[in-house]
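B., you asked whether I could sanity-check this one before it goes into the benchmark set. Here's the sequence:
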Amino acid sequence: MSADEIGEAKAGCREVLAEVWAFLDNECDQNQRDILRQHLDECSPCLEQYGIEEHLKILLARKCGGDHASAEFKDRLRACIKEKVLERTQAKAEQQQ
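And here's what the prediction gave me:
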């Protein structure tokens, strides 16, 4: 695998992990779900991270079962999570270089 291919793969992983909550919450269209699912099926590091996120979502649902957050709060939380995932993924990529 060339350096360009590795760079493209890392960029794809960052994008997939940034969208994993939308995938878990069924908040993306079918085309995006198919793209994300294909990537998760083919990329074990992303699949592992997806599994962690899925378990976290289940835990949160169990502990906060009856409470419903406002759409505004969900949007802010989703944006914050996406930002942190991108920062963490970027930091890991920089460490590996």
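One thing to flag: The chain has one domain: 3-96. Otherwise nothing jumped out at me.
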